[in-house]
Structure formats: structure tokens, C-alpha cells
Amino acid sequence: MSNFGSDNVTGAHPKVMEALSAAAAGSATPYGGDDWTARVQDRLREVFEKPDLLAFPVATGTAANALALATVVPPYGSVLCHADAHVHVDECGAPEMFTGGAKLVPLAGTDGKLTPQTIQAAIDHAGVRDVHRVQPAAVTITQATEAGTVYSVAEVAAIAECCRRNGLPLHMDGARFGNAVAALDVPPAEVTWKAGVDMLSFGATKNGCWAAEAVVFFDPALARDFVYRRKRAGHLFSKMRFVSAQLEAYLADDLWLANARHANACARRLAEGLSAACVDLAHPVQANEIFAHLPPATQARVKDAGFVVIPWPDLGTDAVRMVCAWNTDMADVERLIAVVAGRAA
Amino acid sequence: MSNFGSDNVTGAHPKVMEALSAAAAGSATPYGGDDWTARVQDRLREVFEKPDLLAFPVATGTAANALALATVVPPYGSVLCHADAHVHVDECGAPEMFTGGAKLVPLAGTDGKLTPQTIQAAIDHAGVRDVHRVQPAAVTITQATEAGTVYSVAEVAAIAECCRRNGLPLHMDGARFGNAVAALDVPPAEVTWKAGVDMLSFGATKNGCWAAEAVVFFDPALARDFVYRRKRAGHLFSKMRFVSAQLEAYLADDLWLANARHANACARRLAEGLSAACVDLAHPVQANEIFAHLPPATQARVKDAGFVVIPWPDLGTDAVRMVCAWNTDMADVERLIAVVAGRAA
Amino acid sequence: MSNFGSDNVTGAHPKVMEALSAAAAGSATPYGGDDWTARVQDRLREVFEKPDLLAFPVATGTAANALALATVVPPYGSVLCHADAHVHVDECGAPEMFTGGAKLVPLAGTDGKLTPQTIQAAIDHAGVRDVHRVQPAAVTITQATEAGTVYSVAEVAAIAECCRRNGLPLHMDGARFGNAVAALDVPPAEVTWKAGVDMLSFGATKNGCWAAEAVVFFDPALARDFVYRRKRAGHLFSKMRFVSAQLEAYLADDLWLANARHANACARRLAEGLSAACVDLAHPVQANEIFAHLPPATQARVKDAGFVVIPWPDLGTDAVRMVCAWNTDMADVERLIAVVAGRAA
Amino acid sequence: MSNFGSDNVTGAHPKVMEALSAAAAGSATPYGGDDWTARVQDRLREVFEKPDLLAFPVATGTAANALALATVVPPYGSVLCHADAHVHVDECGAPEMFTGGAKLVPLAGTDGKLTPQTIQAAIDHAGVRDVHRVQPAAVTITQATEAGTVYSVAEVAAIAECCRRNGLPLHMDGARFGNAVAALDVPPAEVTWKAGVDMLSFGATKNGCWAAEAVVFFDPALARDFVYRRKRAGHLFSKMRFVSAQLEAYLADDLWLANARHANACARRLAEGLSAACVDLAHPVQANEIFAHLPPATQARVKDAGFVVIPWPDLGTDAVRMVCAWNTDMADVERLIAVVAGRAA
Questions:
Q1: How does it assemble (chains A, B, C, D) (predicted)?
Q2: CATH, domain D13-251, list 2.60.40.10, 1.10.260.40, 3.40.640.10, 3.40.50.40
């Protein structure tokens, strides 16, 4: 493919499709009472080395994030997040809808990252126990971030420690969680619950599934009323196995990590190639996204050569985003580099 | 299959799976900008003989219903519905969530049906323009009904006329719309917009898809803010083609009607067989659902024979629901009849 | 006054006005940090013999009810109430708004009363722990009821016992609580927390104040997030003493009970007089409201004589409501009786 | 009074109390059908030279703001406001609650003011018609601002022109509207609808009333569903005259402007005196609020002398707010100046 616009322009991985086809025949208990869904939870318990986690399949990242947050954030609460966070900028107010009107508090942070300092400052400023103010109720971070960077285990742990000190649950928007874990090359547990993450939106859609995410509660107590909220939001699927079968294939043999490693490798190569061609990168490239400044003439050349990249005006009029995916062809990466470098058209 | 518990215990029709597999390769514009989604709308315009209708794929019936209603019902509004309506009884308050707290007003009605008389009486009683009262804002009917019956074209038209007189949009929950159209054997337009229906939740999940519905606005003006509400509810899929490909296959060559006709035929045969065995049916069997009174001993026999039927306590302690689906084996129907009749075990 | 339309057509009792005038001078801590508010809580603790109750002044009964319910009812919850309950019928969906979309479940009941049996049947029918159903989260009863009747202590206790068995908090809408207590002639504690009531909307507006209610939590733990919800709803008054001063005067020397006794006595006399004139009463008259069937000619006579009574179509085309208040003139009562009896014009 | 903490520490003006006392006797049509309420609307039409405006009394500024905004802002909408706006910072999320979850977008601005440039930039950045983003739906400005400054007529008109160009209604939070009009010394119409303001929260509580505000719609069409929203929020008072009588007295003989002029004069004198004493003011003093930097020793002296001023940490650890009110004693102002200047203790 020569479409570097997003990882969501991809379809589904052949193994995911196979699993879905295999699941199509026969009858199964509806609404998640099926075997696929049970096996997905078992498998996630293994993957995360946490035998008591609770996992709930849903079909969009927006649903996963909004449902997870709504489980712990009251209507008079606030969610501290990065100013560029998907939950704040790209979900048309879903967290507000699902929480019944909580407020998202956007915080600044280099390369898409929050720090314990910015979080603590926001809490100090928030007016805790002041009835005139919305009350901090959760922190959410995105891993990999919206800037294509990856929180280290230590960075997550420091944020989690700050959350714990303030009695706030920590949610991780893992729309590109696979890319982050692949980049960090650590066991998934290390960068989640062992570091202090309470809830994870475990994304699979961008990385090889059709429409599959799992809301993972590492502390099962937090999941108390999740199932009612999910149903009420229209996100409980009668034929749940259609989501769970995707997830099962995605998790089997660590397909998710293999896919993510491939996407990351393509992005790394692309970043190197662009840098070598004197292209200015807006953020370190640590996962599968590249944000770069491309002069108009270069952008025109890229377009003429049949590549799709996306203008990213927040970073400047010459900024673009390029995303590599599980099915990106490395040859396309090389060709794109050559076009940018002016060695090909 | 010998599972008569529900039509949602089924998987997906082979043609739906084929279409999905075919759609998996290659890249596509995300969020519904793809060709599949465009073709589904075109096809629905043909099917409904309405070139300006707007259709939006979603993945659950609850989402379809709640989103459609929220588009026209303000928070201080009410939705008039049958007391057994899925929106009122089985969606954990989804319409309340999506509308921001509107009230569902359950109305009585024989065999799952509303009438213009009950609707008008409810409106007369509602306190229109009285600020102390929630204001009637929509009427919703289910076709086929929750009682397994089917509104005739004339019945729908009479309800719609009542709605129009009172300035209320009419929504149709078509979770089993295919079964209703197959039963009526009329063009879909006749029992929807030509009869005065404004919005349809066109259900496909129960009748051969995995997770696919379309919210159809026959009056495109009503769809004004639908797209924001869908996104905000987490029901806008990045890889939308995964829903649209299902719908495309479902609509192609009228697969939806063929599936529905089969399910209805099975149900009709089952109803005849049960009646012949002196079983008391709770409602006329007009689509693919049968509600029947089965003595405990018979129920035990049915269970021992490996059949799944569902207790239906609302109709009495001896009541059960049996549902036939697109993939029900007629031989299983005959066997079930024989078991009930005491001719087999 | 000859206005028997409602107890809310009255102004404020002279002692309430005096107290308000006295409170007008000088500065005070805003938002309820003032002495009046502290004294009202102290006084309510005395009145209810409950030293740890928490009381929060608000200015409308709708706010009191909706805030109290929202404190304990999640968005996916339901509130069991009488079909004629003010919260269900006359608040334009306030409980739905404040809870974020919970469902009110209207239950039938003679003379405006719920019974443990109807409540238990509703719970049994509700689908507790079924994710497809809204979950029962509270019961609310109105004392005096919307039918002008009064729950006995035993009746309240029986309902509370049913609530406790089902883990549901019991709320009492006491818009006419004074009238009920005056009618029962028991200590307020007996018919509230000692009988098992958890939360009370202690109404004062109808019975001599301008705009004053107190939300009383007998179990302080239930009040956890009340203060945020009140502020967020715009019901935290900066000059709170204007509500609290009313309540202080209302509670002083049991003005509230004296007012209520007077209103009840007027109503009792009116009911006797009407009965003697062969007027059919729709409900027993136990507090300050009378529901009666008056032939059209009688209604015309009443109107011509300058009396205001309110048509009450729910009880029939000939039905009217008459309400006696703290300032009703007994001479007007006698005159009204005479007019109805045809002895005066 | 020596309480400079806020204008809401005051009680009610004697004329307001007189009017309230006079209104207490006799019966009146409840829920705003009374004569006081009608007269208030008439009087506001005169005051604003706008015979078709619609005005609705409520009792708190938070209710006024949240209801006004909810009338025009859908759940998926956003409200552009100053970062220090009361609606954003001090209402515990009331606009979010009343709109069903809209987003407030805080914008920077010197001395508490928005400009057309910051508003336009925010709109340009917002993603208009992008379904992933909340949609700009209203602009709100505070007059006088939270910084104690006052928008000139030209400044309001420029903002309104920007709003009109973008199709956004303009709301004015007039919690201290009297102070602003007194400062500008222009007819109220000039700085509201003639300048392009669509809706005004006309505040009276801080400036001499107990609890009285009016939501004013200069374009009556915008008020369409206001009455249902007000009722549903528990802000429709049965004995509405208690609010309206306050407003009537407040508007009579321009008491509101006299009160505001007094408060402003006190503040002006205080600002002059502080400046003369080399105190650094954080914002220009244009209405009745002073924000100043006072060294700790000075703050201690002020406190010891019996004055209440409020720490204002947002402006620095040495910052305080002082507010003059309709009943501030000019002698107290002089004494406070003397204490700050070290000429008195």
C-alpha cells in the first residue's frame, strides 16, 4: 500500500479474517456468554500476567475510552489529559457524553507526554473539595502518544505514583498499545499494572483487526458497573464472538506484537530516511507515526508519486503525518524516502 | 442447529462472510468515506425507492434505535412506545442516555402493537405545552413486533397519520424488518415511508450479518446532526467497510428477504405443528417468533431432546419463546414438533 | 382567600417574612457557610431526633427530589414510584436530568399509595443484574401523597422493610410533609428514619415559606457527593441565608406544624361539608387536599361565587381538586360548602 | 461592612425587602403567571428598549448561565469562553450538565477579555463540520469580566460581529452587569443587543437582591424551549413572585444602577488609594472588583484591622481580591486605604 495517511485505512489481517470465518458457523450464546469471549479474557490474563483482570470487548477505541472513564468519573468530575489527547480532541465529546458531563482538562506536554509535575500542578490548581469546581477524578495517558512517542516504564510509573498519591485512577488509551509494547520490548505487565495503570483501552483495530478493542480492568473492583454502561451505550454486541474472534486471533502467537514490530520498523526506517534527506521531524519517532515538516514542493512530489500523507496543521502549515501499519510494504517506504529525497518521482 | 432461543445465537451467513473477506485487503478511506458505505446507501435508495434517503451503518440495534431517537427527541421530550418495546425494556436505558434523559412512555397494546387510539390518548393525557410535563417528541413502533406479530401497511399508515396530526416523527425499530417485509410481501417502501415512517432502524444482525444495522432517514432533514451524535457515542467505525460490506452482501440479490422468508416459513410450520399438538400460542405467529404455553413436562422433554427455548415469564410461568432464524434447519423444526407432540424424545 | 386551586398560590407567612427582613442586613459567609444555615441543620436534628443527619437547603421541591435521587441513582438505574408521583408526572423529567438518564418506573396504587407488594413485584419483574435492564436503585414515596392521603407509620415501615430487603434506599417526597405529620400526630422521626426512610425532601414552600426546602439525609453517608451535584445544578445559593432564614422561622415554635394543622382542619371541614352535601370524594381526605366529583352545574356555581378550584381530568371530567393552605380562611371554607350545597351563591 | 471578600456577602437592599414583604400577602397564580413576573418583563423591555425581548426570572447566576447556554448549545457543541470565565471555572460543570455534555473551550485573554481574534482562531482550530470534533455553538463573555474590567461597546460589537460571521449566538454573563453599565454610562441596549448580544444573564443577586437573575433573550426565537429546560432543572419557582418582586424593586427608579454606581465609586476610590500607597494592581479597576498584590505584612495588617479580603492565588501568592458592593461604607474604604498605607491599624 502507498497510503501512509493512517493505520486505520487498512483492512483486517488474514489470520483475523480466518478466525472470523471459522467463528461464523454454528450457534453461540449471545451477548458475550460465548467461548471466544471467555478465551480472550483468559488470554489477556496470560499476556498481562494478571489472573484476576477483567476484560470486555468493544468495537471502537472511542467506546473503550469513554466507557472506561465513565466507570470511574462522576458527572462533576474532571479527567486530566494531554491537550492533544484523542479523548479530548477527536471523539466529539464522547467522554463528556458517557460520564454525563464531566470536564476534560487539557494539559501541555512535550512530545505528547504528561509528566507527574504537570499533573500535580493541575490538581493543585483544581480546587479539590471546593464545591464550585469540578473534581479531579482520573488521569488518562495515551500509549503510544498522539505524537508518536512512547512513555518509558519509568515515566508511566512516575505518573502512576502521582495518581496514587492523589487518589486518582490512571487510564491508558492504548489505541496503539501494541506499537508501544513492541517499541519498549518489555512484558505488557511492566508498562501497565505493574507500573500502576488501572485501566487500559487495549486497541486492536489499527493493528490488524476490523473493529476490536478490549477494555481491561487490572483492578476488577473498578469494573463494578461497566457492563450496564456498555449495554446502555449500545456497545454490547449480541454476536459478541465477532469481536472476540478477532481478538483471539490477534492475541494468538503474539500476532499483535509481530504486526506492531513490522509497523514500527517501517516507521523507523522512514524516519531515518527522511532525516538523511534533511527532513525536520517534529517529534522523536518511537512507534509507527512520523510527524515531519515537508516543504510544499516536496509534498507535491509525494502526492504525485501516489502517496497519501496527511497535513497536520497543528504543527505548522508544512507539517504532515505519516503512519506505518501492520501491512505497510517496506518497498513503499523506500520509495517514499526516495521521492522525498528527490531521487525518485 | 437446535437452538431456538433467539435469532442472535446465529453466526453470519456465508455470503456475508465472503464479502467481509473480500473487503479485508487493500486500503480504504476510513470513517465511512469508503466505497462499500456509498454503495450501501445507493442500494438502500433502490430497495426503498427513495433516491434522497440517508443511511448510516452502525453495529447494534440498540445504537441504531437510540441514535435515531436522539436525533429528534430533546432531553425534555418523551417517546411513546409499546410497553414491551425493546427500546424501553431491553436496552438498559440507551434512549435515555442518548437523548440526555428523555422519558419513554410505555403504552399497552394487544399482540405487541400500538394503535392510533392508544397513541392519541397518550398524547391527550401528556400535557402538551405544559412545562411541568415532558413533551411528546416521537413515536416508535417495532416491526416485526416484540410479540412476533407484524403491522399491516394500513396499521402503520394509521399510526403515521396520527403522528403527523400531532407533529411527531415516527420511528420504526426494524430489528426484524426483513421478517416483517417477507411476511407482508410488499415492497419495503409501502410499509415505511409511503405509509408515513420517518426513520427506520434497518436491522441485519439477527438475519444473517455479524453486527450490522443501518439507520435510515427517509426525510434527510431529520438526519441533521446524526453524524455528530454517532461519533460522540463511539459508533463511528474507522474501518466502516467492515459493517458496510456485511450490509452490501445482505442486500445483494435480496439475500435479506430470502433469509427472512426461510425463518418465517420455519416459524409458520412450527406454529402449525404446535397448534396441531394442542399447544396454546400466546400471539399470532406472523414472522419468525413463536410464544407458546408449554406444560412443565413438555418443557422438560424439549430440553432433554437438546432444544433450547427460552422461558418467557411475562406471559406466564409456562410460557416460552422460540425463534427461527435464517439458518434454522426445517428438520429440527419437525423434530421439535414431534417432541412437543410426544411423538419423539 | 377564596383560591382553593393550590397551596402554592399563597405568599409567605408573616413570621417567615419577618425573619427574612431581619436577615437582610449585615454580611454573612456565602454559599451556606452562614449561621442561619448551621442553625437550620441543628434545628432539624432536634426536630427529627437525629444528631447526625445532614440537611441541605434548596429552593424548589423539584430540585430537592431530583438532587436527592441523583445522589443514589446511577444513570442506568431506575426509581420505583407511584404512577401519579410528582417526580414522574410534574417535573418535566428533572429526575432523569439529574441522574443522567435513569428511568422512573410508575406503579399503580390505590389512593396514591405504594405497597410493599407492588414494589416487590416491580423488583421481581425488573431483571436485577440483567445487563439489558435498568437496575432498581431507589424507591420514592410521597407523604402526604398526590391523592391527599397519608401513609401511616406502619405503611411506611413496611415499604422501608421491603426496600431494605432489596438493598434500595427509600426517599420520601415531603412537599406536604408538614400536613402528613400533623395528620398522623406523631413525632417526625417516627414516620421517617425510625420507619426506615433514608432521605427526605422536607418541603416548606407550600406551607408558609417563599421558596424553601431541605434535603435531609438521615444516613449521612448517602450525602457523599450531594454538594457537588447541588452546585452543578445551579442550586447552591450565594446568599443562602435567604433560604435558611425562611426555614429557621418555619421550624421555630413548630410554625410548620401549626400551619399544617390549620390547613388540614380546613380540608377536613371542607370534606365533611361536601360529603354532607352528597358530593362524591375521589380519595379519603387525610391532609390538605380534596379530590371531588362536582357536577358541571355545581362547578359553574362555585366559579361564579368567586372560588378557584382546579379541574382534575385524571379522575374524570367532573373531577376537581381543592387545596387548603396555612392561610385559608375557615369562613371561605364554610361559604364554599354552602355554595356547593346550593345554600349560597 | 468591612467585608471586602465578595459582593455576595451582602444581604438584600431595603427596597428589595420592602417589595418582597408587600408581595407576601394574597394569592397569586403560581409558576410565573403572576403580575410581578409580567411587570418585570415589561420593565426589562423598557430598560433595554426592546419590546419583544423575553425575560425569565431564575434565582442563581449559575442557573441563568447554564440554562441560557443549554438553549442554544447541543450536547456535541462547544462554548468558547475566557479561561477564567465563571461558567468554566466556578460552576462545577453546570453548563456541561445542562447542555448534556458540551465542552467549554477556555481561551486566553488579557484582563479577563476575549477578542475577535482569539475567538476566530479558536473557531478556525475547532474543526467545524469535522465529526470528530465538538462543534462551536456559542460564545460567552462576562460583563463586567472576572478580572474586574469592562468591555467597551466597541469591544462587544467586534466580538458579536465575529460571532455573527461564524453563525454563533453570543451570550453575556452579566453577574455584574449593573456595574458594567454604570461604568460605561451607556444605555443598556447599547452594550447588549444593539452591539449584537443575543442572550444576557441579567444579574441582580450580587447588586442588592437576595437571589434574582433574569435570563434575557433579545431574540425571542432563541428562547424556544427555555421553559421546559428551566422546569426540568428545578428552576421554575411555584411562588415566582418572590423572585420577580425582587427584580421589580431592583429595576424600579434604576435602583440597580444607583447600587452599581456606589459600588464602582467605592472601588475606584479604593484603587486610587491603593495606587497612591504604591500597591500594584493586577488589572485595571473598571467596575467593583480590585485585584492587587499585597505583601504578607500588609495582608496581616489588613486582617488584624478587621477587613476581609480574599487570597487570589491565580495571580500570585501575594495577590488578593477586594470587592465593593452596593452597601459598602465609603468610610470603610478610606480606613482600608489607611491601613494598607500604614497610616492606621
A1: Homotetramer.
A2: 3.40.640.10
